[in-house]
Amino acid sequence: MDASTTDRWIRRLNLLQLVLAGIIIMTPTVWMVLSSLKPSFEVTAYPPTLVFTPTLSNYVELTKTTPFLSYALNSLIVTIGSTALGLLFGIPAAFAVSWTRISWPAILTLAARMAPGTLFLLPWYVMFRQVGMIGSYTALILSHAVITLPIVIWILLPSFDAIPRSVFEAAQVDGCSVTRILWRIALPLVASGIAVSAILAFVFSWNYFLFALVLSNGDTKTLIAAAFNFIGEGSTQWGALMAAATLIALPPLVLAALVQRWLVSGLTLGAVKG
Amino acid sequence: MASISIRNLVKRYGNFTVIPDLNLEIADHEFVVFVGPSGCGKSTLLRIIAGLEPITSGDLYIGDKRVNGVQAAQRDIAMVFQDYALYPHMRVYDNMSFALELRGTPKAEIDARVKRAAALLHIEPYLDRKPKELSGGQRQRVAMGRAIVRNPKAFLFDEPLSNLDAKLRGQVRAEIKALSQELKTTMVFVTHDQIEAMTMADRIVVLQSGTIQQYDTPETVYERPANQFVAGFIGSPAMNFFPVEWRQEHAILSQGGTVVPLGDETANRLRRAGTGVLGIRPEHFAVAAETTDGIAVSVKLVEPLGSDTLIHFDFAGAPAIARVDPSLRPKVGDRLSLRPQPGKTHLFDAANGQVLR
User: Fold this and answer.
1) Which residues contact B22 (CB under 8 A, 6 or more apart)?
2) From the list B83, B88, B98, which residue is nearest A174 (CB)?
């Protein structure tokens, strides 16, 4: 085989890999969307029906039987709140770690993120109950900050590290305090990193199930926790569950699609100094 | 405008001492160049003056104010960095006006000062550009412009020419020198390039291992080096060194026993010391008319530079270089008779390298 034939085969294999990966990733999503459009009896049919008459009955049932919009609002409040909290503390924290080159606080937050959520659940439940905050947005936002804070710190850390130290030193000599350096010099230079960390924090917080299940009440239940109600001990409303899952998945998907290019460049930010 | 005074300065990183004990006085309006090999502490010293590195012990005064614990932001000094350190997200104009804006300077005055500095540095057409849209030389000018607009007490330069090509380096070197004469501000310039040191400085600080080896005018450092390190560091090609002894009323090369014709002054110093290290700069060899008049050498390599020619040869078992007139047109293998120019030789203590007087 000559070089050009080898190259052609490599390209074909690459394409095949991408198609396979795409199928593996997309199948559950497509399945979920199609199931949400099937009549209830067809959702669990085996073999699965590929040709069917689409219906919005699951969506109608969902909105009729549940306060879907208020759950969505709860999810938005908790997600936006925890993302904002993550950014508020994560940006200065990442900058401080980069500035001082003391990395243990960042490693500690990463360890907290890696620990299973159940680890936090009992102490938090006890603590929030003690102060009468179970079922409050505050408890949910604070608990979700455990998800968002490490994301913000770990995405922004390489971005801050990639800024040449001399740029900060020049700002010091020019008359900047450390706070002003963060505000006027560092933040504009890591804007895409901030956007990426905000989107990922939003997505992870939006999709997080466990804390809302335990720490929310009927008034503050988030979408993902509410969707769990469709799974019953005797019977599960799969059609409504799929409709809810589709609607839950929509905001992160739309968000990711809108900022796709930014997301990719932001994720590789700091990988190469230039 | 201010003098800089460093007294008994010590700088340590953990157990590693970079500057053991340093005293230095830089006069107001003076252009001082720190020069030395990599790791000699010259950049650390500059960063200490800037307030970017804390002092372990000792005192630092800018003007008559002790600034040991004073933040860089409060020292009112400007610094030009090796990589220029421009703010990538700001236009050239904003890069230059940033420090003035922080000090609350009125907008009209900022505008006037930025435009004056831009005119001085010929960067007016680039004021609306971002740093990434500029060449290395233009960025360098912007970095200088950013320093100039502030009208600071002192300018600090940390190897600002090392990223420029040779031609541009020569040009900017001359511009900085001209600027220093025009601005009449204290300037401290760090370089490892001795040509930059020699051409720009009012006085040169030659550093080795955090210790000042000599602090004097370029002419003195070149003509009367304080020790063998300074003699070898300043001058290109470097000074040739040969161990010598005084025997039977002659200066004799320790290796090979060749008699070296020396001027009376150096000969007297060697007579008193008995032994030493003889230093002869390549340009201070004269080609003798007769082989009996000098030291016969065999040319190993010829480097014609246009204005003069370098010839390489072995002398007393060690490689040596002489700078000769290009009209001589020597060839590899030619025999030449070289003679140190009287009054241009240096003699150092063989044990501690200090000049023998």
Assistant:
1) B6, B8, B9, B10, B45, B58, B210, B211, B212
2) B98
